[in-house]
Design a protein that fits this description.
280 residues, D-Maltodextrin-Binding Protein, domain 2, elongated, alpha+beta, 8 helices
Length: 280
Amino acid sequence: MYKKSKKQLSQCGLFTALALTLISSAHASEGLPDTLRVCASSNEMPYSNTQQQGFENDIAKVLANNMSLPVEFVWSDKAAIFLVTEQLMKNTCDVVIGVDAGDTRVLTSKPYYKSGYAFIYKSDKGLDVKSWTSPDVKNMQKFAVVAGSPSEVMLREVGKYSENFNYQKSLSGYKSPRNKYIRLEPKMLVGEVLSGKADMAHLWAPEVARYVKESQGKLTMVVSPEFETLSDGQQVAEHYAQSVAVRLDDKALLDAVNKGLQKSAPEINKILNKEGIPLL
């Protein structure tokens, strides 16, 4: 293998330092940070963890690379739902990956993918569930869902909420969500279906796609319709576009993020497809 001389190594180091200085100066003149500081959960898979095994960790790295910025994860032990209020708004970091497009608390980038809630059930059950009005739903008793989600709204609509109440509480160890936010681990919820403890799950597909894929065909995942209509005519949205969030006054950073996302699109799609996330 060809080895560089000490003089050549010294020159390489000089050129690298010069290139980084020029990039840093360019970013500063554009009102951009020198580093892309990403608000990230330390243990919220499949999105993120400190080992950087989450698919949003991968997306952040790709985005930073295409923005010509080094990436720095600013870790939080709190649940991801607090990343905006407890990190981004307090200026401890600069972007949040995976926020609903149009979130009014922040500026959101152009969406980089759209997915939806999905029905998950055992493949060998011979079920045919495509919406909450599918006949097979009437014969089910136990549903693994997340409190406060569109799934819970639809459980009430189809008259299954009351009979599912005790089972749902058992998933959180009967802890009251009024006292503390309780995150139900996606892998555990998928496991409830795989073990037969739950007849079906209805969950945000990107959160569970990895675990459905790991079942090697034992589980079926079917994305819900874009809207489910309630008896009073109201519609419940089931599909959501995902964006990168920045603070309301970070317009320059938002523009740079949008350009970076455009460059990153092929790599991001590869990450999402590898994860098994259904893209709409």
